[in-house]
């Protein structure tokens, strides 16, 4: 049976001030009427029932997750005591699934991406599931054909075709985030795809891989298995999880395993990694401004402006700015130096403004 596993533990600092430690990026509505995590839930419907969804998040964000996704059983919101990257996260979900479904197939996805159309996404998941039915030991990844030489994504190199009657290819290699020249080479070669972080595999298979490549993580997960579904779970998790190695599933397993399949994603994908994503998600006015909610500007161009629904943002004589207003904080930055927001977050922390983070 297919189970959806949503990884929802991020902080989304690049979307400050609307994204906060207790209300990170996945809870924001950046396009349409539903938040990113709600849209992640929606796109799997009706192929995966709500009772077959699992969300791995942290304790600080668990209540907000339940509020945003009341359809999912409360016991299926798995609370990590601390951040340990995606390998332990996926391992936690796997042992939970196997407790009730020994044949569980995991559809693993981040909570904070925008994908369309949903029908194409569901078709891709079904295609991946059929590959696993043919060979239960397969690990299936999705690659997005790059539309520009991005330096912020990891890349997957396409290998040999699986067979004459199956879609997809083997994986030739994984590549870290490249510099601009290398990214351009990847795009021109036609062999490289963006790694969008969406995976399909059997829960038993990924645990076997963890046992092979990260035996300490696997051993600590096995200590948790007897407590699944019992009152001892929380205590055992609080003891064992912080001891687990912090490592991504890519580094921990995928870059070392065999029998990995790559399917080209038939859907469009956006990881909405920063406020620049609004320019891709919303139309621009005649002056190149991207505006969400109320704005009145004179001699204003190339700006990204997002405010509260009943709060007017007025601008005069400005260009290429990011302006984001919330009830308790306003952010103004050069559009060309947006990554420096991490420096600002650190400065806020050092200056005693933790209540705004």
Present the secondary structure layout.
Elements: E1 2-7, H1 36-43, E2 53-58, H2 59-68, E3 77-80, H3 86-100, E4 105-110, E5 114-116, H4 118-134, E6 139-144, E7 155-163, E8 166-175, H5 180-189, E9 192-202, H6 203-213, H7 215-224, H8 233-240, H9 249-254, E10 260-264, E11 268-270, H10 277-281, E12 290-292, E13 295-301, E14 304-306, E15 313-319, E16 321-325, E17 330-334, H11 341-350
Overall mean confidence score, pLDDT? 94
Q: For the record, what is the CATH homologous superfamily label of the largest domain?
A: Spore Coat Polysaccharide Biosynthesis Protein SpsA, Chain A
Our estimate of the beta-strand percent is: 25-35%
Q: Would you give the CATH topology of the largest domain? A: Spore Coat Polysaccharide Biosynthesis Protein SpsA, Chain A
Write down how many β-strands occur, each being a DSSP E stretch of 2 or more residues. 17
Percentage of residues in helical conformation: 25-40%
Q: Reading side by side through the largest sheet, how are the strands ordered?
A: 6-9-7-8-10
SSE class: alpha/beta
Given as residue ranges, the uncertain stretches (5+ residues, pLDDT < 50) are none
Q: What is the number of domains? A: 2
Count of runs of 4 or more consecutive helical residues: 11
- The SSE string, one letter per element, is EHEHEHEEHEEEHEHHHHEEHEEEEEEH
Q: What is the correct CATH architecture of the largest domain?
A: Alpha-Beta Complex
First-last Cα distance:
40 Å
| Major sheet characteristics | 5 strands, mixed, barrel
């Amino acid at each position: 049976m297919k189970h959806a596993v949503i990884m929802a533990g991020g902080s989304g600092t690049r979307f400050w001030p609307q994204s906060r430690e207790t209300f990170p990026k996945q809870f924001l509505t950046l396009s349409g009427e539903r938040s990113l995590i709600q849209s992640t839930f929606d796109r799997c419907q009706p192929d995966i029932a709500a009772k077959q969804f699992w969300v791995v998040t942290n304790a600080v964000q668990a209540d907000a997750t339940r509020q945003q996704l009341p359809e999912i059983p409360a016991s299926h919101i798995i609370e990590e005591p601390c951040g340990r990257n995606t390998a332990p996260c996926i391992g936690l979900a796997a042992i939970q699934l196997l407790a009730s479904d020994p044949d569980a197939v995991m559809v693993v996805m981040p909570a904070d991406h925008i994908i369309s159309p949903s029908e194409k996404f569901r078709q891709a998941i079904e295609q991946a599931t059929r590959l696993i039915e043919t060979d239960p030991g397969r690990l299936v990844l999705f690659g997005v054909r790059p539309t520009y030489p991005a330096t912020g994504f990891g890349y997957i190199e396409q290998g040999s075709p699986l067979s004459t009657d199956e879609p997809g290819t083997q994986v030739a290699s994984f590549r870290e985030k490249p510099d601009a020249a290398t990214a351009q080479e990847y795009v021109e070669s036609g062999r490289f795809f963006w790694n969008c972080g969406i995976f399909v595999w059997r829960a038993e298979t990924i645990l076997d891989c963890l046992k092979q490549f990260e035996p300490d993580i696997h051993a600590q997960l096995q200590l948790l298995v007897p407590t699944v579904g019992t009152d001892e779970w929380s205590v055992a998790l609080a003891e064992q999880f912080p001891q687990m190695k912090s490592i991504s599933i890519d580094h921990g397993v995928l870059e070392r395993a065999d029998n990995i399949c790559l399917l080209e994603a038939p859907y469009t994908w956006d990881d909405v990694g920063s406020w620049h994503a609004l320019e891709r998600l919303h139309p621009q006015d005649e002056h190149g401004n991207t505006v969400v909610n109320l704005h009145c500007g004179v001699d204003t161009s190339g700006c990204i402006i997002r405010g509260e629904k009943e709060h007017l943002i007025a601008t005069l004589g400005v260009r290429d700015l990011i302006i984001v207003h919330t009830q308790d904080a306003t952010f103004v930055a050069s559009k060309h130096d947006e990554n420096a927001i991490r420096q600002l977050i650190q400065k806020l922390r050092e200056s005693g403004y933790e209540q705004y983070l």
